Structures are given as C-alpha cells and as structure tokens.
Amino acid sequence: MTMMLRQIKEDIAVALEKDPAARNALEVLILYPGVHALIAYRVTHWLWGIGFKFIARALSQFARWVTGIEIHPAAIIGKRFFIDHGMGVVIGETSEIGDNVFVYQAVTLGGLATKKGKRHPTVSDDVVIGAGAKVLGPIKVGCNTKIGSGSVVLQDVPEYSTVIGVPGRVVFSGISSEMEDEEGPESFPDPVARAIECMLDRLPEMEKEIRQLKETLNENGIVLPDSPPIDEAPRKKISG
Fold first, then answer.
1. Using CA atoms, how far apart are residues 101 and 125, in angstroms rounded to an integer?
2. Separation between Cα atoms, residue 28 and residue 161, nearest integer Å
3. pTM of the entire predicted model
4. What is the CATH number of domain 2-189?
5. pLDDT per residue over 35-73, tens digit each?
6. Per-domain residue ranges for the chain?
C-alpha cells in the first residue's frame, strides 16, 4: 500500500512536469481526469492482484464513467505514465506499458482476437502516442517511438521510430539514442515532415524506373507518346 501511495504521488508530479498548463499539485489532483483514471487504476490493479477481481472491475467501470477513460485492472503500467486530456482512452486487459509513456486523448490499446491470452499491445519505454491513434493486437512498440495522431498500428514497430497512417507505417527509424527527447514529446521528429522527406527521396528512383520502362518498351517496338516536362506542361488560365 505504501508503494502504491508513492506511485500516486509520482503520477501527480509527472503531470506537473509534462503539462505546461498545470500550476500546482492540488489543481492536478482535483481537475485532471487522466490522473484520476491512473489513481483508480493503481487501486484496482492492487485489488486485482490480491484476488478481489469483481470489486476491481466494478471500481474501474466507475472510474470510466467519471473520467471517460477505461483502463482494465489487469493491464500493466509502468512509472511516469501520463494521459493528456484523456477522454476516450481505452487500455485493454493484457496491455503492457513501460516507463515514461505519454498518451493523448482517444488512444486505444486494443485487441483483435476474442480468444483468451495475450491479445493487446506491449508498449516499451519512452513512447508517445498521438491523439486518436489505435494500437491493436499483441504487437510490440519499441522504445523511443512516436505514433502519429489517428494512426492505426497493426504490426510490430522497431525502436526509435515514427509511425503514421492507416494502416500505420514506419516513416522514420533508427534515431541515435543521443537524439533522445530531453524536454518533452515536442522534440520528437515530425511525422508529416518525415513522410514528405521519404516521398522526395523516392522521386529520383521512380523517375529512373519510368525511363527504364520506356526504354524497354521502345526496344520491343512499343512507342509511347512523349509527355512534356512538368515545368513545360500547358497551364490553365485561372479567371476571376
């Protein structure tokens, strides 16, 4: 019980550290639903562990009704976990979350199977999950990873990665640990910028492949009409 109280105190301190809008511990304790849900989880997880599973589930459902955040008592959550805003967050029964994980509103750590056993994600340390992201199935998200808002992740994600899209795809991976975030999730790579960089890197290769395809077709007697370069293409006059 003493350890649980120490953990709750740390949860409040983490909210003060990670949310610039937080002014003092009393405000966090009274007004932050993410902290309320996490405190309820700490209690229900302890009850679940000592065998009072029905009471644990009942209290977790009450916490869901009050906060809009659903955390199953059997889930495993590490230290320095923070839910920002929080409404709509769902963390399933067999989810495992490491230390220093940052989650925004409407995130789901859910399952795809109805069979018993491991069916929810494992999220490693120092991960940021953007608003509305869905991480589904018994997959593993590597440490120091950022999952973009609205992404749907269905496969394992390597460490030091940035994931965006539906389905989620890795657009950047392999950041040196020396580049690890020091001041909060804002310093992680921008997933949209990384996606644009990937597309720009791919363009020269695509142009080369198109030229090779044309040459192959010409060698086989198939001649395609030449298209004017992009910068010489006729432009429509915009009136009005």
1. 6
2. 31
3. 0.69
4. 2.160.10.10
5. 999 999 999 999 999 999 999 999 999 999 999 999 999
6. 2-189, 193-220
